Structure formats: structure tokens, C-alpha cells
Amino acid sequence: MFYGQDERWEDGCDYNCQCVDASKGHYQCAAKCLTFRDLPPECSVLPAPQGKCCPIINCPQGIVVNYPDGYQPQ
Length: 74
Description:
- The chain is mostly beta strands.
- The chain has 2 domains: 1-32, no CATH class; 36-64, no CATH class.
- The chain has no helices and 5 strands.
- A 3-stranded antiparallel beta sheet has the order 1-2-3, with no helix packed on it. The chain has a two-stranded antiparallel ribbon with strand order 4-5.
- The mean pLDDT is 91.
- Keywords: Collagen.
């Protein structure tokens, strides 16, 4: 499949990609889902909801997990 300049596409549940230089066939991809390391032991990682790709972090009240600005689970 060929993508044009600035065209975006999804690579399954793994990556969001964009063509950055169509004349050279260059593209960039970024992971769709965050990887959580060193979560508090009280928190758990739940499977992605149906129709979504990314797992959900479940923590008890009072424990806050900070997400990057603009992050939206996919």
C-alpha cells in the first residue's frame, strides 16, 4: 500500500503512522498505547475494553496515574 505526503494510517492496535516524506518513502510511527512501568502495587492493568486497543489502569481512590498531555486511550 502507498501513502501520500502527510497521510495518516493505523497499524492495527500497535501504531499510528504518518508519511513524512513521500518522495523518499519515509514515515514515522508512534505506539498507540502507553507502557506502564513501576505502577504502585495497589494498581492493576485491565484488558482493553471491547473495540479499543489500549489496556486500562485501575487504581484505588487516592492513587493518581499521570498521563501525558493530550493522551487519549485508543
